[in-house]
Design brief:
Blueprint lengths: L4 H17 L1 H4 L4 H12 L4 H29 L3 H5 L5 H27 L6 H25 L3 H7 L1 H8 L1 H6 L14 H13 L8 H27 L1
Length: 235
């Protein structure tokens, strides 16, 4: 069966209408730009501060919005109908992910402008951010498949928000608690390390290990997501 952009667009249009009507969910898109504007006016300019905002965007918008979109389908008992429609798994997951992806891109660009973040190599940073967004979309989709309602989704995504928004603070505790060194391999920490290398003059070839780490996380989360999605089809 051919991949249908028409079906993907139909799912996207439906998600956009539901998202725009749900103020409790849609209001989160304003938080990262507001924080970025505050940082910009205060003159705060460090990789840690810029990526606190970017990683917060991933957790609070990409993962949270995606989780709520999937959970809302389940709450309204429309997800099963979507699964049994002529649309393929790829079309459904692409259509359900498109809104979160676009919102993420827009909010990150606005936040970077407000906080005056200008990476030395915007191409490398952009690739890393796009790859990271795929991870958080997969994470949001996975959590949404386990949630039974939007309210439950809001609770399920809180640990992810804390871990991936403020994960860099966990690594600072690794001196006292060596077991926390595993946090250095989290995708948000890999993104910060990559951005730091780029600011120090690194090129694409110098950050392949960080990009590879992010790609591995993307593959793992989407493997779990697709497996869980297909199990939900036959439940």
């Amino acid at each position: 069966m051919m991949f249908s952009l028409r079906r993907v667009n139909a799912i996207f249009q439906k998600d956009y209408k539901e998202f725009s009507r749900n103020m409790a969910v849609s209001s989160v898109i304003f938080m990262p730009p507001i924080l970025a504007a505050i940082y910009g006016r205060m003159g705060i300019d460090s990789i840690e501060s810029h990526y606190l905002i970017i990683n917060m965007t991933f957790a609070m918008i990409t993962a949270y919005v995606q989780c709520c979109l999937i959970a809302e389908e389940k709450e309204k008992n429309t997800l099963r109908g979507l699964m049994l429609s002529p649309a393929t798994t790829g079309e459904i997951l692409s259509g359900k992910s498109l809104l979160s992806f676009l919102l993420t891109g827009v909010v990150i660009v606005i936040s970077a402008f407000l906080s005056e973040y200008k990476p030395e190599n915007i191409t490398v940073v952009a690739i890393a951010i796009i790859l990271s967004s795929f991870f958080y979309i997969g994470l949001g989709t996975l959590l949404g498949l386990f949630a039974k309602s939007v309210m439950e989704a809001s609770v399920l995504v809180i640990p992810a928000m804390i871990l991936f928004s403020f994960g860099s603070f966990i690594t600072k505790l690794a001196v006292q608690y060596p077991i926390l060194k595993v946090a250095n391999y989290l995708p948000n920490i890999q993104l910060i390390e990559l951005a730091t290398e780029v600011e120090n003059g690194a090129h694409f070839g110098d950050v392949l290990s960080q990009l590879a780490g992010i790609i591995i996380w993307v593959m793992i989360i989407w493997l779990l997501t697709v497996v869980t999605y297909r199990k939900r089809m036959v439940d």
